[in-house]
């Protein structure tokens, strides 16, 4: 419960930064004495009262929680770590990895996610064997199933499991799909888009979803990335959109999107994973990536349809 | 900014979404009747009870904060759509299609305090509904720049408001804004209050560069700051690429180079590749005039260079003196 005191302290820091006196801030909400009492111990404060103080300071409560968790305490780096492991961006990961190793979450499910991503990173970086990672994945799945499964923390662990074991029990795939369709972007956004990506990526390689469900999830991801404008995930959406177009055999429409995905790999990946990603797209679409991109851009430019 | 935010309403939403009964949520914590009294606003929910509910809902507090933020964001998406149209300078469309949905509405998202009021003023001025002088007077009242520059905290809505204001303000104000934002980017004791760290930080790069590079006079120290901001942006952007903002920041760098007749094919490559890898939408059209035959040739030159493609992102650019 100490973190509530942290929120009150951050509120007071903002009050000072904005040059507002305690008496002005408290006017109509509480006495100055109560304010100082809350500074020392805020066990019985009501959220609505705290929110009223924040309103006077023109700050959102969620900003304070986010700031306290991610910035002030030196961000344990959970989301940054998981994101980097997902996109295989390892340039600056070691420090975050060591920070995450020291961190323990109060939430059992969040703790499960952190530990399994640590294992995934260790396996990807050759620090542990594949067998060790697979065992950890099995354990993580069992832990997840033990608790309330209807949340993003459970869905992301299951999506990792599906990515590795695409022939797993169909009920696991169904439960993740159901959650994603129902939940949309209401949960932690990075975890949500990673879960979509794990599932759709597995389907691209192992055809685990029906084409209707693939399109439904792809469209949903498309809506989500409109409000979560992160280039990596928008680019992944483009890939899934292209894959759906390939099945319709609409070459002209495919030509308007596929070069964007390839250029996206160039812009985003560079470096070590570039070749792997390019090979995947060349295999999936039976093309020579750079030649295809140059031709598509030249033709669209000539027709004045490039942008 | 949601003045009527009631935490218990979001607990209830989450409970229903997670298919947990009231009995399961409240058992051992409070009686179901007390919970109903929280919901009907007869009693306010204490933080320690809220915390117990969150434990039962397997939702850490920071995820609950994001849940509230995302729910408000998605339920009020017209505010975001309107704002993005103004940033892309599509004033007529914003006025005809989105403004009717906003004009009698109490704003709810993080843009509500300053960014949306400033956007509306800019739109009205551009459509000749109000004069430029009227717009500036109103904008200065809303933004309170003098108070802002003396603070050590800034929130996401204020950063977005500056994105609008910097398009129309005078040189003195640009100097104040650029110097202030440089501090937020370079000094960790300055607080950036946001739920979308990447977007807010890239917006900070964008607004500060826009303020610096459109000032009529720059000092030597300013040029060093611009170079620092560009390099820091490139380093940050290696891992946090936001969709249109990367094109917007790279355009500022591209324009700055053109204005000062500095030639750099790498800047052209990264700028054009950023635009063309962005899915086509209304907002990408603002970059259309920069997609020339000459720039496409530069893009192809690097695409054919296998050693370049296998390098780490921005590697050659960061290795060079930029300005």
Topology, element by element:
The complex is a heterodimer of chains A (307) and B (323).
Chain A (H helix, E strand, L loop, with lengths): L1 H16 L4 H5 L5 H9 L6 H11 L3 H12 L5 H10 L5 H10 L5 H17 L5 H17 L5 H13 L5 H14 L5 H18 L4 H17 L3 H18 L2 H18 L5 H12 L3 H14 L5
Chain B lengths: L6 H11 L4 H5 L5 H8 L7 H10 L4 H15 L1 H11 L3 H12 L12 H12 L5 H12 L1 H5 L3 E3 H10 L5 H16 L4 E3 L3 H17 L6 H18 L5 H17 L5 H12 L16 H11 L2 H4 L5 H5 L4
Parallel strand pairs in B: 1-2
Summarize the structure.
The complex is a heterodimer of chains A (307) and B (323). By secondary structure, chain A is mostly helical.
Question: Care to describe what's here?
Answer:
The complex is a heterodimer of chains A (307) and B (323). Chain A is an all-alpha fold and 307 residues long. Chain A is built from 17 helices and no strands. Chain A has a domain at 2-72: 434 Repressor (Amino-terminal Domain) (Orthogonal Bundle). Chain A has helices spanning 2-17, 22-26, 32-40, 47-57, 61-72, 78-87, 93-102, 108-124, 130-146, 152-164, 170-183, 189-206, 211-227, 231-248, 251-268, 274-285, 289-302. The longest helix of chain A has 18 residues, at 189-206. The model of chain A has no long low-confidence stretch (mean pLDDT 86). With 323 residues, chain B is mainly α. Chain B folds into three domains: 7-73, Orthogonal Bundle (434 Repressor (Amino-terminal Domain)); 77-143; 144-319, no CATH class. Chain B has a two-stranded parallel ribbon with strand order 1-2. In chain B, helix 6 packs antiparallel against helix 7 (91-102) and helix 8 (115-126) runs parallel beside helix 11. The longest helix of chain B has 18 residues, at 220-237. The relative contact order of chain B is 0.06. The model of chain B has no long low-confidence stretch (mean pLDDT 89). At the A-B interface, helix 1, helix 4, helix 5, helix 8 and helix 14 of A face helix 4, helix 5, strand 2, helix 13 and helix 15 of B.
């Amino acid at each position: 419960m100490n973190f509530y005191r942290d929120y009150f302290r951050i509120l007071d820091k903002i009050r000072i930064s904005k040059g507002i006196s305690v008496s002005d801030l408290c006017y109509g909400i509480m006495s100055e004495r109560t304010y100082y009492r809350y500074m020392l111990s805020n066990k019985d404060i009501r959220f609505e009262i705290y929110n009223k103080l924040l309103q006077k300071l023109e700050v959102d409560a969620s900003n304070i929680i986010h700031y306290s968790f991610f910035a002030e305490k030196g961000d344990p780096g959970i989301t940054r770590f998981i994101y980097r492991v997902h996109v295989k961006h390892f340039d600056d990961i070691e420090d975050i990895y060591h920070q995450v190793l020291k961190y323990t979450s109060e939430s059992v499910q969040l703790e499960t996610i952190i530990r399994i991503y640590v294992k995934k990173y260790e396996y990807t970086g050759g620090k542990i064997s594949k067998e060790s990672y697979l065992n950890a994945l099995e354990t993580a799945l069992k832990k997840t199933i033990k608790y309330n499964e209807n949340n993003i923390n459970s869905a992301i662990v299951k999506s990792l499991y599906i990515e590795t074991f695409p022939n797993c029990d169909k009920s696991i795939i169904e439960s993740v799909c159901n959650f994603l369709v129902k939940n949309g972007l209401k949960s932690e956004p990075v975890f949500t888009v990673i879960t979509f990506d794990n599932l759709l990526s597995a389907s691209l390689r192992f055809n685990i979803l029906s084409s209707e469900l693939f399109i439904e999830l792809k469209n949903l991801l498309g809506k989500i990335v409109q409000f979560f404008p992160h280039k990596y995930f928008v680019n992944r959406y483009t890939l899934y959109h292209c894959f759906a177009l390939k099945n319709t055999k609409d070459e002209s429409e495919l030509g308007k999107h596929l070069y964007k995905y390839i250029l996206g790999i160039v812009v985003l990946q560079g470096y070590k994973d570039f070749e792997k990603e390019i090979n995947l797209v060349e295999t999936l679409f039976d093309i020579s990536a750079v030649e295809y991109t140059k031709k598509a851009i030249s033709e669209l430019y000539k027709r004045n349809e490039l942008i | 900014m949601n003045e009527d935010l009631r935490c218990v309403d979001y607990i209830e939403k989450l409970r229903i979404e997670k298919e947990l009964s009231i009995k399961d949520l409240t058992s051992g914590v409070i009686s179901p009747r007390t919970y109903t009294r929280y919901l009907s606003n007869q009693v306010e929910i204490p933080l320690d009870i809220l915390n117990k509910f969150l434990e039962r809902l397997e939702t850490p507090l920071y995820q609950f904060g994001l849940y509230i933020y995302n729910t408000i964001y998605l339920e009020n998406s017209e505010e975001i759509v309107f704002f993005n149209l103004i940033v892309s300078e599509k004033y007529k469309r914003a006025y005809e299609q989105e403004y009717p949905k906003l004009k009698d509405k109490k704003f709810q998202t993080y843009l509500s305090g300053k960014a949306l009021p400033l956007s509306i003023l800019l739109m009205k001025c551009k459509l000749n509904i109000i004069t430029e002088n009227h717009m500036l007077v109103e904008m200065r009242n809303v933004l309170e720049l003098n108070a802002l520059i003396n603070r050590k905290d800034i929130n996401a809505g204020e950063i977005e408001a500056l994105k609008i204001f910097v398009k129309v303000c005078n040189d003195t104000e640009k100097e104040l804004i650029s110097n202030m934002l440089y501090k937020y980017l370079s000094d960790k004791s300055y607080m950036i209050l946001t739920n979308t760290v990447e977007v807010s930080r890239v917006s900070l790069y964008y607004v500060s560069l826009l303020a610096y590079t459109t000032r009529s006079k720059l000092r030597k120290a300013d040029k060093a700051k611009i170079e620092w901001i560009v390099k820091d942006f490139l380093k940050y952007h290696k891992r946090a690429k936001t969709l249109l903002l990367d094109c917007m920041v790279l355009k500022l760098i591209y324009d700055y180079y053109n204005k000062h007749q500095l030639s750099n094919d790498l800047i052209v490559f990264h700028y054009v590749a950023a635009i063309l890898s962005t899915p086509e939408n209304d907002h990408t059209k603002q970059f259309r005039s920069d997609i020339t035959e000459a720039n496409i040739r530069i893009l192809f030159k690097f695409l054919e260079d296998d050693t370049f493609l296998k390098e780490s992102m921005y590697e050659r650019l960061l290795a060079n003196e930029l300005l």
